[in-house]
Amino acid sequence: MSHVAAAERVAATTPAVARPGSRRRSPGRRTARWVLGIVGVVVGLVWIFPVYWMVSSSLLPNVRLTSGAPEFFPTGASLKNYRSVLDTGTFVPALRMSLAVTFLTIVVTLAFAFLAALAISRYRFKGRRSFVLAVLFIQMLPAEGLFIAQYKLIGSLNLLNTVIGVSIVYVAAVVPFTVWMLRGFVAGVPAELEEAAMVDGLSRTKAFLRITFPLLAPGLVASGVYAFLQAWNEFTVALVVLQSDDAKTLPLWLRQFVQVSASKDIDWGQVMAASSLIAVPVIVFFLFVQGRMTSGLVSGAVKG
Amino acid sequence: MPRSTAPGRVAPTATATAGAAPVRRRRTPRVPYLLLIPTVAILLLALAYPIGWQIYTALHEYGLKQQFGAPAEFVGLHNFVRLFTDSELWTVIVRSLVFCLVNALLTVVLGVAVALLMRAVHTAVRLFVQIAMLLAWAMPVVAAVTVWRWLFDYRRGAINYVLTQLGFDQFEGHSWLEQPMSFFFVATVIIVWMSVPFVAFSVYAGLTQVPEEVLEASAIDGASPWQRFWSIILPMVRPVLSIVLLLQVIWDLRVFAQIRLLQDAGGTPSKTNLLGTYIYQVGIGAGDFGTASAVSIFVLVLTIAISWWYVRTLVREDES
User: Fold this and answer.
1) Considering only CB atoms, which chain A residues are within 8 Å of B143?
2) Does residue B258 fall inside a structural domain?
């Protein structure tokens, strides 16, 4: 699992808690705070620099990147590198491939995981606990210990280099954690809410659709984001299953772009533009959903 | 594989907690099983079958010849014995374990330090650190490795430039990926950079649960900052910390993309292979599926052994 996707796990497992109140300050503490503040700024700069450097380099022509001292501020920035990257004509097919794989993975994962989450949080049945345990174990299994056999499997199904082939592997990789995540959300919607609606005259289906389902929306969004990040960034399985040139997802496309560029005195401006094309949408998306992940929509619906 | 080990161990507690779980009883017990069919089916197809195939293949001679139709010969545990006798393979295993532990520990120590820092500084600084961490966290791995490759570039990389400016002339035109040790140093920098945010945010969330009054009381009683960290904060965030450390160990054990991409950039594969890239090279590259399967199973078993504790914790939390 990638670390990006791990964000989802934290969001799903640790509740956001308000910062503790301000503390008393003495002069000695104030100097300490200043020193720590400077350390904090330095740490922040170190962590942000590679991202800044990627965007900054992508805006400069390669001649300026490779002659003289590095320029830490991109004066005279232009989008020419992006134009050259798009002009190779390989980006759009890879984007289309990534979109197809991601879309299929999200839809199928959500559908499957939702049903399973419903089963384990609303029903008691023989084997429920073993299923939960199995799901938890399976989500820990590394793709790196399975890809040889999955390559063989997809090959024997005649699905190498296809959207469906790679999506099968992705769904299987994402579904266990999604079940676990949705289970929490489904359990968070008390059955009493639904029953109260039924007492008020709604049918079971209507009660579910009107009461439970809207309350599950944040959970579905969170799981969808998790599936998105997994499928969008995945590298290992894609490398094995999608070996043909016209079936590359974006991560494979970037790797190939770098290799082609490196074979003829690498053009760092273009390579950084290509990296930004992949990274910036994910970063923006990530920042956007981060705040919405933990929604308090359900808390307080049933009280007293 | 986990399916077969799980039920036996948990059956007694399952009956014990049956009354407590918030579950409705239905007259038709078939419904939950129907709901599980799609999930179970895809897991059987894409995970259980491959694992079975790997176990079968690992017990057979399955090389290039078999790819072209020769019958796979049963060789028993021969492929597994090779794990511990073949010196190249053994080196890869030891190297992976050392790399994994060093990276996981470094990540957790730095992550805790950043979390404590975020707690100690002014809100504006904290926000800046958090945004920086989020950005690093959100970088897709292929893009991240590419940027670091540019930063570490031997001719025009910013890192060599800064080091040379600081007076370390030996870094002019220094190639970082040539020597295995410095190759792994670069890999560690990338992995730690990518992983620290996760640890920092998790531990920070844990830290906010430590009551301020307790810390103030201990400060009044004369406890030094170090004592407060060691005997109050650390025990309180221990649950978060152990989960995070465990996840890091598991993730760093299976590291693949970073190593593979750095090998593209100029590392010598035979001297820089870790378990993931080794499986790839032996299986996909050389077509020796028998050995590749045996190594894969080794990775799976190791992961399951390490995750056992984690899964137990999660299940316990779920029930409380």
Assistant:
1) 54, 254, 275-276, 278-279
2) yes
Chain A 232-271, residues with CB within 8 Å of chain B CB atoms: 232-233, 235-236, 239-240, 251, 254-255, 258-259, 262, 268, 271
- Are B47 and B304 in contact by the 8 Å Cβ rule? The answer is no
- Predicted TM-score (pTM) of the model is 0.84
A159–B contact, CB cutoff 8 A: no
- Whether the complex's predicted ipTM is more than 0.85 is answered with no
Return the CATH superfamily for domain A85-290: MetI-like (1.10.3720.10)
Q: What is the extent of the structural domain holding B171?
A: 96-275
Total domains, chain B: 1
Question: Does residue B202 sit within a domain?
Answer: yes
Residue A123 dihedral angles phi and psi, to the nearest 5°: -130, 150
Note whether residue B208 is domain-resident: yes
Q: Are A102 and A232 in contact (CB under 8 A)?
A: yes
Residue B75 in domain:
no
For chain A, domain boundaries: 85-290
Tell me which residue has tokens 């709901």.
B35
Q: Which residue of A has its CA nearest to B296?
A: A145
- 3-state DSSP percent of chain B in helix, strand and coil, to 5: 80, 0, 20
Per-residue pLDDT tens listing for chain B (320 residues): 333 333 333 333 333 344 444 455 545 578 899 999 999 999 999 999 999 999 998 888 877 777 777 777 787 888 888 877 888 888 999 999 999 999 999 999 999 999 999 988 888 999 999 999 989 988 999 999 999 999 999 888 899 999 998 988 888 888 899 899 999 999 999 999 999 998 998 888 888 888 888 888 888 888 888 888 888 888 888 888 888 898 899 889 989 999 999 999 888 888 999 999 999 999 888 888 888 999 999 999 999 888 887 788 777 766 66
